[in-house]
Amino acid sequence: xxxxxxxxxxxxxxxxxxxxxxxxxxxxxxxxxxxxxxxxxxxxxxxxxxxxxxxxxxxxxxxxxxxxxxxxxxxxxxxxxxxxxxxxxxxxxxxxxxxxxxxxxxxxxxxxxxxxxxxxxxxxxxxxxxxxxxxxxxxxxxxxxxxxxxxxxxxxxxxxxxxxxxxxxxxxxxxxxxxxxxxxxxxxxxxxxxxxxxxxxxxxxxxxxxxxxxxxxxxxxxxxxxxxxxxxxxxxxxxxxxxxxxxxxxxxxxxxxxxxxxxxxxxxxxxxxxxxxxxxxxxxxxxxxxxxxxxxxxxxxxxxxxxxxxxxxxxxxxxxxxxxxxxxxxxxxxxxxxxxxxxxxxxxxxxxxxxxxxxxxxxxxxxxxxxxxxxxxxxxxxxxxxxxxxxxxxxxxxxxxxxxxxxxxxxxxxxxxxxxxxxxxxxxxxxxxxxxxxxxxxxxxxxxxxxxxxxxxxxxxxxxxxxxxxxxxxxxxxxxxxxxxxxxxxxxxxxxxxxxxxxxxxxxxxxxxxxxxxxxxxxxxxxxxxxxxxxxxxxxxxxxxxxxxxxxxxxxxxxxxxxxxxxxxxxxxxxxxxxxxxxxxxxxxxxxxxxxxxxxxxxxxxxxxxxxxxxxxxxxxxxxxxxxxxxxxxxxxxxxxxxxxxxxxxxxxxxxxxxxxxxxxxxxxxxxxxxxxxxxxxxxxxxxxxxxxxxxxxxxxxxxxxxxxxxxxxxxxxxxxxxxxxxxxxxxxxxxxxxx
Amino acid sequence: xxxxxxxxxxxxxxxxxxxxxxxxxxxxxxxxxxxxxxxxxxxxxxxxxxxxxxxxxxxxxxxxxxxxxxxxxxxxxxxxxxxxxxxxxxxxxxxxxxxxxxxxxxxxxxxxxxxxxxxxxxxxxxxxxxxxxxxxxxxxxxxxxxxxxxxxxxxxxxxxxxxxxxxxxxxxxxxxxxxxxxxxxxxxxxxxxxxxxxxxxxxxxxxxxxxxxxxxxxxxxxxxxxxxxxxxxxxxxxxxxxxxxxxxxxxxxxxxxxxxxxxxxxxxxxxxxxxxxxxxxxxxxxxxxxxxxxxxxxxxxxxxxxxxxxxxxxxxxxxxxxxxxxxxxxxxxxxxxxxxxxxxxxxxxxxxxxxxxxxxxxxxxxxxxxxxxxxxxxxxxxxxxxxxxxxxxxxxxxxxxxxxxxxxxxxxxxxxxxxxxxxxxxxxxxxxxxxxxxxxxxxxxxxxxxxxxxxxxxxxxxxxxxxxxxxxxxxxxxxxxxxxxxxxxxxxxxxxxxxxxxxxxxxxxxxxxxxxxxxxxxxxxxxxxxxxxxxxxxxxxxxxxxxxxxxxxxxxxxxxxxxxxxxxxxxxxxxxxxxxxxxxxxxxxxxxxxxxxxxxxxxxxxxxxxxxxxxxxxxxxxxxxxxxxxxxxxxxxxxxxxxxxxxxxxxxxxxxxxxxxxxxxxxxxxxxxxxxxxxxxxxxxxxxxxxxxxxxxxxxxxxxxxxxxxxxxxxxxxxxxxxxxxxxxxxxxxxxxxxx
Lengths: 740, 740
Hints:
The structure is a homodimer of 740-residue chains.
Chain A: E1 5-11, H1 14-32, E2 36-42, H2 45-52, H3 65-73, E3 79-82, H4 90-102, H5 117-129, H6 135-138, E4 143-146, H7 149-157, E5 172-174, H8 181-184, E6 186-189, E7 194-202, E8 207-215, E9 220-226, H9 228-245, E10 248-251, H10 261-273, H11 275-280, H12 282-288, H13 297-302, H14 308-324, E11 330-332, E12 337-338, H15 348-357, E13 361-363, E14 369-375, H16 379-395, E15 408-410, E16 425-427, E17 432-438, E18 443-449, E19 454-460, H17 462-479, E20 483-486, H18 492-505, E21 515-518, H19 520-531, E22 538-541, H20 543-558, E23 565-569, E24 575-578, H21 586-595, H22 603-620, H23 623-641, H24 655-672, H25 677-703, H26 719-726, H27 730-737
Parallel strand pairs in A: 1-2, 1-3, 3-24, 5-14, 10-14, 15-22, 20-21, 20-22
Antiparallel strand pairs in A: 4-15, 4-23, 6-9, 7-8, 7-17, 9-19, 11-12, 13-14, 16-19, 17-18, 23-24
């Protein structure tokens, strides 16, 4: 116990970053009692931009915290609390750049159309900041997510609202039948380590090497493409269908994570929906640098340089489009923000559960809920949403008071599958052949492609698969719950994985376990049939389904995915504890600035910290750490029971108030325990103070609410100003500070 | 070969009976060449009425052909061709009685409300004629149905029309969630032979024995009930839902076969839908003898005795109902015949496939197709239709040119399951307890019931189950096709059956066979997923699913269930060959009478006769019979290929023309074969004549069409008149007669 150990807490963006200003001082003070340091590492969007250009910042140069964390993740003593951060779209990136420039940081503009070497270098650096740039770097392990018992019990007692489903609902998920990645997927398992080349052969026979990959032995390599023509024809068909049936149209992609392919897909949706406008102004838009991949907002932005009359004409033509296209789902009907405005507004893993929870409906331009066609071009995973929609039509909305749970064990390590495909994704510039060739010149996979098609390769390394199988068996054993490997017999990739899963399962004692392998539709159907009967089923999935399902089921069960326990047992031996899978809640920031009330719920952080302390205790033999973890769990349970989570109304307990109650319950639990006298003695005074001062502290915390505040920035708020806003109770601050 | 053998051909009702007048002379003439007699046995509705009152008919007394056939079915040399016959509803029965009385038969009126002993005796005799009264008697074996290769090939080449499905369709199947037979089902396997009693215990503790049953060892006995209150509440809920969503309302039951329980269910639908009318006129309707179980038509019929002004008032009130109830599916929108008019118009096993084939729509009062709620109160089997509807919404209409097939092996023998429950079905007259008690006084099953609830017991004997398992294995082996036993883990009855199936499967060599057991939803889903990929899957089901599925899948695959090969390998060793599962086509009779054109397709008879000849040949060593069967199959294939089935337009080939072509091709095939010189010589002249006279004969046959004809009756047409109408070609008649 003489060595101090360390928990690394990430500083991120938006609401969770704001909450950190309030929570971290508490956590640091408590952790110190077990000789644990809590260090902070900045992986915010602004922080990552600065780190990418630190060579240009002079005396403002900073350390690259993400690089630090990447190294840490492969060290056996890593103990990282990872909060949600922004997966930046281009518009978000530009916003952050502008803010940093205003703060005096010499970061360059984002080059839309890089020409010089310097511009190209700048663009390349920004490319690494775009999209989901943090998780793939840190996730040096697979994923183990479940609803903690206290959270599940709370949801059963206090069920969130669930929109009723009508058997007559017209809503559905629509996807391509052919021409998409699913239908063209090929997959091979690499027999021995070596280099493979991704090549393009033009119609002239010229071979261009697009990429070289160093493959490991036993690694699974896939290739696939989406036909541009078929994608566009599909979009047109869905629009015609909505026009005929009167069902609202909506698009659901994941342009943030799938940062290369999905913006292109999104862009095609924009140019098909607004076909008349893009046909009429094609040349002008090119000259202006309109990029449909950034949404129709790109048109609004770029035409600002035109004379007013010309702007008006274009806007008129855009509005004309709405008269003959079907109604489109709105992101914000008051402000007129449609589904096609910017690519980062509607993200499939969040938008589809929201729609399903909301009676299968989205909001129309009149602000009313309507039955909706959810367009998800790629059929691989879209099918599971249609399966769930059909299930809800037949069986009604899920009932949080009785339903079972679907925890997830997800293959994630080392950028597995599609989520690691960005640097192997190409938008074809000409017709020809894409092929993957091994070192001996053997063609492993091959596709005939056309200009505009999106071709990609995906890698899945063997060690992560082996670890994933082990994690699934461990979870099935520890939870005493049936586990289903979701491996689709119609997918080439899944059939390669299936061979490995069947092989690696033999390494484990499966006695008494119920482990099966099913196709996606059958897997989700079985899980739902069990779920409505109150039974739990572990989903053991690939990387994309991991991401989708850990929103989908928690949002049905708990009303949010932020309350899930999300552990990444790192393959090197450390642990990463992720919190709040539901995004970083930009609307909460807006509310704080407007009325000094932060609705962010730090429950995910509480849960993650408890496991983090417990694991730290187990690994280092630090008994105090274990007690900190155990008492934190007790405090969290009490907080839920006593309904001290952030309330919805201004003037009631918000994020800061809930932190106070957590601290009070935690201190009380530590003062009440008898396992460690030192800790008991250390926390008794704090418990007493907080208990006695409860009313006064809450009055200070809640009294601060109701008026606008200045935090000095959005992407990089001013630390002093923000800390003052987030710690408004002098009594509480003094009590916490007294611990040190 | 010296012994003449015998094929028994049933004389039935409506279109198939009319067709028999044309086809049978041909068949008899051909059969004689192999020393086979073809005898006819009358199981028409009229024939069965007469047989039931033969003691009252004086010199018009007739033999009870159904009783004869029942004996024959348990004899090893039975060879029965069973054509479709009427499953009579009360209105149909009354129609037949009136016609027979007009023909001078002294059959009594149907007593609506029997009081005297004689009336009660009459009612009891008629009860045996009602509903599906023939099949349960004859089906002394299980069922083996499949699409013959020639028929399947024809459907792929000449696909029938299939209505497109929209993903936005609002249509669905709605069913009770609790309170139905499914939710209350209990089941036991009887360990040793003995008597069991069905008892009712009133609130006063008095025990009434409702029925005694002699049980065999190993017999499965079920009991279950449907709550009257919950059924009525369910109907009201479906009506409110349709009112809110604008989806059309329809009811799908099987009042013909389930002749005790389903008319009651139907009656509740009538009194709930027309609640205002039945509440207002309750007492009057009672006095008039209105029986809602016979449909709203019962009101129309009974009020005829009232003064015109009172009739008008009631009719006005009935029409008022339509103004606040949702739109109802129409049987005949021109004539204003609704779904609730009479219970025999909409029969679930025919109506649901028709709806699904028709884009999930039925016809509204304006004659337009509309999305529809298909109400099927009992959830046991309704779920499979909802599963198929969801499947079609997701995957589009089935494609007859590529889809696979779902043959059926059905448990049917000895009135298995619900289809034998009529004499064990009771509408509760008071609240109390229904229980089943064995000879030792042990209570085997028990339900608390309320007045109005429908309670029933079902029996399934062991020998039929054993035979069914054997038949499934044989079929899977002979067809080299995976077979799925549809046994639902949520049904008590199915769980009893499952034990036996697992046991009896051990009696067989299953090497290389793919035999599995699945719940209904999973079974139909798996079968459909395989089907759209062109794969066949044998459904091995209980009696009701046998009935439903052998319409459902054939109607999707072939456009009709009448083209299925339907064999009942009788347990005693004989064979019954059923034809045309699609009913007896009353509309075809109307067309014949109005314009002397009969659209009935005798393909089912052709297929059945071919197997019948072949089996007769195998069993008796009659080589000529085998050749007759083989050449008949060739003729049928040629008929399909050359498109000589009945056409749709008057003046083209109808039923009679198709019989001519069958005879010509059959004679040609016999003249062409070289296995049997005698047959070759015997048929050569006929082949020559028919070939040469083709144009003349077709001219005679088609020339007869286009004007009304008189056949002297509907339920019992005049044999001479009908024969003249059905054999209008003198040249053809002479040619056939010359064979003898």
